[in-house]
Amino acid sequence: MKPLFSKGPSLGVRLLVLVVMSVALMVVDSRFDVLKPVRSQMGLVLMESYWVTDLPQRLWQGVAGQFGSRTELIAENEKLKTEALLLQGRLQKLAALTEQNVRLRELLNSSALVNEKVEVAELIGVDPNPFTHRILINKGERDGVFLGQPVLDARGLMGQVVELMPYTSRVLLLTDTTHSIPVQVNRNGLRAIASGTGNPERLELRHVADTADIKEGDLLVSSGMGQRFPAGYPVATVNEVIHDSGQPFAIVRAIPTAALNRSRYMLLVFSDRRTPEQRATDAAIAQEEADRQGAKDAHPGAATGQAPASTGDAQGHAPAASGSSAPAHGSSTSHPAATPAAPAQPRSE
Q1: In this structure, is the dihedral angle defined by the CA atoms of residues 109, 112, 116 and 122, taken in order, positive or negative?
Q2: Which intervals carry biased composition (Low complexity) (predicted)?
Q3: For the chain, which has fewer Cβ within 10 Å, the N-terminal or C-terminal residue?
């Protein structure tokens, strides 16, 4: 009876045969080119099997890569949005600092053109009442601010101080309805009164004769009358002149040169508050002192009391005048100039 499962060579014999065949194939492949076409064909056939066996791993890597890339892209996108927002904020701050630098440079340039002593002040508040044009600045009585002190920005006059506090002050702007300022046309010196209208972009000239020589584009400057505002500061520019033959006065409107509703920094002007008589007296005294000093520099001997008049006399004035050298002259005559020389010696010492 034939067995169901026939018994073949043992595993050891099979292994030995495979090892021998493998060694023989390696030797033949390394020494000869006979198996090169066979190897190429087998590589072509096995490539498909490699691709099929590697397909699950590549699919898994692709899916994981897609999900991982999407997560990374979302995180990177959020990071870039945050950085862009921060950079935009810094850019806005830089733009604000640039504009502030420009305004400060303009203000410093205008302060260099002002002959009077000035101090920079900053706007810290605006009166909420729409019918009152007042602002609050960060300089007060402790900083030397006084009532009626002129305030200007880089373009022209803004107003005057009307209320004092220790560390702050209120400034009444030119356009307030209760404010008026004496002005003159810079072109021909025509005098007028510029009054506020309640509009931050408009002033009106009151009681200007219909035949007055004033036209659009004329620059209005402070005239200095009233002893409140210094003369020569820009106030407004005429933009409208209406002549009515039936009215004795013309309607003249002007635009303030100062940026009343935009300026943040301004100048407080410490002008000379002396009267003309005081200024004339002080100037005369200063001139007299200068002449006296010039005379002393031209004759130094007269200032020290060692003039030739210190030759001395018989009563002993010479030792008091010169201290040592007068007796060497041996003069017995009395000189009239010798007597004032004696009290001059203590001042020279």
Answers
A1: positive
A2: 316-349
A3: N
